[in-house]
User: Fold these one by one.
Assistant:
Number 1:
Amino acid sequence: MNILGLNYIYHDSTACIVKDGKLVIALEEERLTRQKHTSAFPEHAIARCLEVAGMTIKDIDHIAISYRPRLDLSKKVIYGMRMGRRMKAFTEFELSQDMSKRRQLRMWLSSTFGKGKMPKVHYVPHHEAHVVGSFFVSPYESAALLSVDGAGEWATTFKGVGRGNTYECLSQDFFPWSLGIVYEAATEFCGFRTNYDEGKTMGLAPLGNPETYGKIVEKMFWVNDDMSIGVDLSYFDFQRYYAHRCGKKFYEAFGQPRARSKSAKFEQNHLDVAAAFQKQLEECILKMARLLHERTKEDYLVISGGVSLNSVANGRLVRESGFKDLYVMPAAGDNGTAIGAAYYVYNSVLGHPRNFVHDDPYIGTEYGNDVLRRLLDECKLTYRQLPDGELEREAAMLLHRGDILGWFQGRMEIGPRALGNRSILADPTLPGMKDKINAQVKHREAFRPFAPSCPIEDTPRFFEQNVADPFMLKVCMVLPEKQKVIPAVTHVDGTARLQTIHKETNPRFHQLLKEFEKVSGVPVLLNTSFNVMGEPIVESPMDAIRCFYSTGLDHLVLGNYVVSKNNSA
């Protein structure tokens, strides 16, 4: 039983293959086309997935799409007519997009299968693909379910409960009652790209004072006692004209927005707006989760959707929601709906028992040492080959002396976070390292923090975290006495977006951390994605080489090969 899961409706187009309930491979289209957050039909990802899986398209029995055409169509049409010309134009655009996306699939199916037998196509509602699919690959036999994003079809949330391979929807919210889009208004005000740069807003928030605009923001959006979302739409414009999030009243309340330019200065009102919106978003998600916990009596929470990438809010859920822990898929945004849709079909539609836990994010492409060596020779690069064990010791020494490494190993991880296989690594004990990487390597805003990676067994020595976080999606506090020890990964508010490293899933990265501890006394490394701002994470060794030579990286570690810009290294 082979299922091809696809997402290409909104953004982050992705393909995956599930064989007899096991996730064989999942790939984001952007990694192959180098177009970040692309919504193009994922034909390159499909082809590579089939290649890695050793299949042809004729081996596929079912295709799962993370979108159900015409779902809530009447709501869209009525809303568009009621809101007037500008929203009517948006609604018409949505309908044309709906038709366009279905046409793309039909054309691909026709060109691929001709008049031959086609797989059965399943259209899975967007939020079910998000959170029900996530539940089916979670480690929990039963759990509360929460999906929160901008909008999928017309819904903006899904609140429910899952047990075994069944689920129940308790309630949903619908456009324009959206926490995701409201948070996008703060992103727009701070001069960032909406539905793209919300992580920047989250990172900017600790620099501001949430109390300055706290009372106003509390009245702008909230969660009611029945778990529904409330929004004072008078502050916003998205409900009438989706391209603009902020309305006239928004600017009257908060002042002049920041220009959308990397060089534009951040004024205090921009920092304070980010802080207030971040705090209120956390309070809303926390209240929703507490009410869900009270209603379902479940011990665990599965959360998904774009808002679940807000790792600061997730950290508070771990500490304050009443749940023992939560599961967030590594690709918790729309990219993960390809996986979710496939498992929705396998477990819910086809009724197969659950037999897979998605606790390993390294499910992408891989390049062996033979391939890496041929490429290095073709590029006429000078390199050193080191055996296992010696490679990790050498890399640890280079990091300890202050060098910055591009680290390219094994199978590529999925999702927006580099998790130790397509990473840029550095010594977190050096106070100036954060600024150096932002300026010379990543070419991005100076305020943006970097994450620490630490072996799971060493986590209590440095972080106030009592649960695993292999996907870097739960922000925690750095122990007060350790904040000056690892300043390059400690944010201004004393927090860190920790990744716990598990020897079972990534033995090489785990060993590197242990080797770094031997020379530095600290089993923690600064870990950021192997890319520069505006580009996807590198997929191929050629991508890695290009990034290496266009940035301030000192060394590139490709498999068992080390390339250095300084030949004396």
Number 2:
Amino acid sequence: MEPINLKNKKKMMKTLFISFVIIILLIGRIGYLQFIKGEELQTLAYEQQVQKRTINPKRGVIYDATGNYILAVSSTAYTITVNPTNIVKEDKEKLAKALSNIFELDYDTVLKKVQKNSSIETITKKVEKSKADELRQWLIDNNIQTGVNIDEDSKRYYPYANLASQVIGFCGSDNQGLDGVEAKYDDVLSGTAGSISRATDATGEEIGTEGENYTAAIDGDSIVLSIDMTIQSIVEKYLEEACIDNSCTDGGNIVVMNPKNGDILAMATYPSYNLNEPYTINNEELLANWDNMEDSEKTTNLQAMWRNKAISDTYEPGSVFKLITASSALEEGITDTDNEGEFSCTGSITVAGARIKCWRYYKPHGSESLRQGLMNSCNPVFIGLGQQLGISTYYKYLNKFGLLSKTGVMLPGEASSIFIAEDKCGPVELATISFGQRFEITPLQLITAVSAIANGGNLLTPRIVTATIDSQTGERTELPVENKGEVISKETSDKVLSMMESVVSEGTGKNAKVAGYRIGGKTGTSEDGVNTGKYVTSFCGVAPIDDPQVVVLITLYNPTGEGGHQGGGVAAPVGGQIFSEILPYLEVNQGNADEVKIKENVNVPDVIGKTITEATEILKEQGFEVKINNETEDLNKEETLVKEQIPASGIKATSGSCVYLN
């Protein structure tokens, strides 16, 4: 018997040991679940027991500078969701059919969501009130009281569709800003989401009697742009006309800035697009082939359409940049405005063995002062100034004018300038930079630098948003003007402005004249890349010269029309048109009001094929001035026929502006 008892005892000991190990493991597991995984499991349990729906806040309003126009606003819309576990099985197919019909959705997709074993599924977002009401009535008619949620949402709407589209930008389906101001100020505009939640058991039935727990959304704050809707509308009108009339294959842009505070009063890109339909391409040829494109190609074309060329695209500024060289030389005391015979143009200048031509190499300008050199846009004058400044000093002013860095404007996608490094810059590179070629900057960098000349010498950071408005209190907070410091003296500023006025009154910028107003400016023409055969034509204007309130920069890419590609003939007239409307709007005093009556825009007559004498008489009868290119003493105007005219016939130009004949 004893051996049997010993055997039983061993079994008991073994059983006790195993039981002890199991208990230890269970205690360990409980401890692990309680103390290590406890918070995570509690969260999962809460998610299973609580059905939660998000309430999207309304994005803040975007106002124009005057506050009189709403450029972007969120209107009430609805989000439709379902709780599949709360829908009676017999009703699921019927409900899926109704949802797909009312909201024009795919039936099979909706049915899968309705039949899912999940607590909540989103059917559609951004639903108009009329559609939401139609669903409400259908639910009543079919006695479906649970499982379908119609929650208030918001939908972004742009009342003026295409206006300032590349500046304002747009939002995605989740109300997140995707481009432009909408993206850059998303944290200000977006607000804080609210929620609706309720506790349920495993079958989806409500637990307790508390009902739904509602947390209100907090709407986003509003912002006030520096963009003035009236000025923006004027600018977009003339930009579109200029791009169409001059067949600008790569579009164009115009920026209008207040030099006193850096406010961007208008920023337009052509072609624009409809902010309410941002994924609809604006090019008819592309649209016709849209369905055949790869997704990557579609994305590339859409991004090009959304692109704000004024801040994201760099270009060679051409002769407008001579204002920077002139300002730097005057500030350094190298020259003065009216030293007669200080410079001499022989048609070209040789630098380090390279012959660099003046644009009018075929008829050299001869003896010139700095004022005359700017009026004539004479390359050798500014090459000589660059040489006297030297590389180190010249780069010092490039930096002071903000041309070696981004402007810091609060818009996405700002590009950096492209200059050869200072230590790599040689005599030829310095020469070409001095008259505005073989480097690239953005239009915004250039107008910001010219605004520093216009305001007395201070470089300001461009502003696109001037204030925010608290959605809860209505309190308005003004955003500060940022002054980066003095670039040139007031004395130098006044001298450059005086020369700019001469450019418009007597020089290459005559077509920007507006009777009654003192306007200054500078024209520019440059190659768009090396050996591309494309050109960029531009004009930068300032008004009024005695107290600058507006700076305008027109940049047109690859004009291929009959009007040619010269800044004086293509871009300057656009500047005159814009000034003729925005200066009266801004109630700028007419400093020269007694000189002449305000002139109207008229169609340029067709004089090609007529003798120069006949053409001159016709044009002068219409109120135009006439300039004959390549004019010589032995030119027989009675017999020589006009082969080319700039601007071309049919183009609208200001009466009193100049028509160039070849």
